[in-house]
Design the sequence.
């Protein structure tokens, strides 16, 4: 076993961690809280493992409006997490109110300074999530993935390169969100961090987001993840026997094949779920746009409603999302065998991956010279030509200018959603080819995806339904739950008095 793989095994618990049972019910109050959380979570596209962290962040933000006392924050947070069955009895025993109060005290003392509130609360939620999470092995695979991928990235004169590689691995391989990545950077700077470390992490992350190399590194890491994912899945399928399962290629191949089959089946379910949620989300959003924006604009501009464009705008986006989903597939048997072979190769040569053919090297900007300027102009020309063609076709059908923009908006959103879902289906895809490459369809689709990405980011910030839930419904609803919880406890005491 090579050095990096041996270090990984030595740091893993190998199944010795405490078993985690299901969360216990909390009566009427808990049922109401869980129904609310299910509805609230449905408004956002978050992976299941990120839902609790997001809930912690939301609860903290709401309470911080009225309360800055760390102990009260800790007590209310644990109470609401217990209501919604976000924590198990084991996890509650693992993290006390005093421990949580101590952690929150550091964050509360950092408020109203240079670091923004959203960053502080986000990092706090990530730390609390990790305190509650009894799975301590996950982070060890992040370090293993970083050690493996770092060797294959050969970029010169790039500031904060190691930081960008770590962020990319944490995002893609470990599936951390921005808040968790931020906390991990704070922890890397200083496990016993102070405000100065929080400030430095915020500045570092702000700096690397402006570097174009980050997107290239993230894209490259995505191509390297499949073998690393399989190794991690093999461990979590049977932690106690992991060392035995990686003793030789025969055992590894046999065990990995079974694990991969299960993971692909689960991936297929996740893809189907994502498609259904996307179709419903797009349909409801499109209906809202249609009747609140498109119809009034048509009446204001044209004094009537154009029925054909309106019908197309209502039906086309969810239909396109469904049709796009039919093109999404999982790796075939031959690709699965290649992936298993590559995963074993990674384990065997984890300290010598720099010798692989698929490495990330600097762009050829210095060699392109004036060609880069020409290619940039051609790209913008392609961008304009594609959307001009779409607008021209829509005009022939009878779309108004407002209907055209709404059509392009949803076309871009659907294309981006479909692209993200396809990425999910490709997480176990491994191709033996060098990084890079494109085709004509990719060139045509790229401008639409770029626009869809920008629109999607805007939708996250302007999620009106989430705004209504968070700032209009949640605060009074949780006050009612607090009242009900106290009332039930009062009745229980009275019942005990009668029985006594």
Sequence:
């Amino acid at each position: 076993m090579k050095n990096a793989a041996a270090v990984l095994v030595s740091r893993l618990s190998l199944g010795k961690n405490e078993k985690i049972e299901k969360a216990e019910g909390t009566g009427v109050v808990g049922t109401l809280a869980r129904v609310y959380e299910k509805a609230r979570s449905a408004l956002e596209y978050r992976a299941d493992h990120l839902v609790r962290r997001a809930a912690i962040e939301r609860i903290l933000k709401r309470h911080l409006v009225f309360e800055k006392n760390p102990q009260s924050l800790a007590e209310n947070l644990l109470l609401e997490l217990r209501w919604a069955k976000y924590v198990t009895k084991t996890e509650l025993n693992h993290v006390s109110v005093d421990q949580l109060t101590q952690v929150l005290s550091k964050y509360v003392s950092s408020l109203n300074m240079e670091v923004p509130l959203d960053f502080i609360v986000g990092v706090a939620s990530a730390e609390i999530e990790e305190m509650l999470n009894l799975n301590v092995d996950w982070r060890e695979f992040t370090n293993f993935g970083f050690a493996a991928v770092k060797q294959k990235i050969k970029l010169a004169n790039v500031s904060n390169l190691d930081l960008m590689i770590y962020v990319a691995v944490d995002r893609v391989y470990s599936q951390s969100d921005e808040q968790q990545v931020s906390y991990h950077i704070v922890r890397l700077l200083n496990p016993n961090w102070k405000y100065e470390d929080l400030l430095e992490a915020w500045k570092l992350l702000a700096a690397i987001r402006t570097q174009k190399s980050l997107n290239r590194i993230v894209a490259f890491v995505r191509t390297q993840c499949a073998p690393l994912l399989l190794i991690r899945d093999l461990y979590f399928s049977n932690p106690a026997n992991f060392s035995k399962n990686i003793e030789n290629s025969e055992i590894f191949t046999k065990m990995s094949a079974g694990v991969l089959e299960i993971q692909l089946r689960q991936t297929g379910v996740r893809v189907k779920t994502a498609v259904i949620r996307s179709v419903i989300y797009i349909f409801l959003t499109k209906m809202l746009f249609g009747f609140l924006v498109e119809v009034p604009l048509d009446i204001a501009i044209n004094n009537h409603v154009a029925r054909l464009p309106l019908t197309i705008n209502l039906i086309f986006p969810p239909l396109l999302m469904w049709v796009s989903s039919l093109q999404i597939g999982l790796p075939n048997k031959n690709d699965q065998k290649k992936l298993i072979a590559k995963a074993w190769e990674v384990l065997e040569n984890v300290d010598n991956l720099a010798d692989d053919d698929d490495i990330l090297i600097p762009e050829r900007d210095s060699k392109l010279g004036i060609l880069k300027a020409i290619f940039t102009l051609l790209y913008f020309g392609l961008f304009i030509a594609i959307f001009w063609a779409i607008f021209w076709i829509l005009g022939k059908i009878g779309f108004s200018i407002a209907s055209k923009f709404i059509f392009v908006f949803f076309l871009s959103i659907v294309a981006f959603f479909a692209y993200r879902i396809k990425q999910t289906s490709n997480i176990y895809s491994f191709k033996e080819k060098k990084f890079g490459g494109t085709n004509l369809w990719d060139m045509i689709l790229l401008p639409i995806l770029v626009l869809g990405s920008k629109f999607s980011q805007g939708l996250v910030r302007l999620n009106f339904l989430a705004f209504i839930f968070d700032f209009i419904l949640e605060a009074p609803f949780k006050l009612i739950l607090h009242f009900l919880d106290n009332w039930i406890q009062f009745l229980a005491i009275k019942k005990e008095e009668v029985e006594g």
Summary: Confidence is low (pLDDT under 50) at residues 433-437.
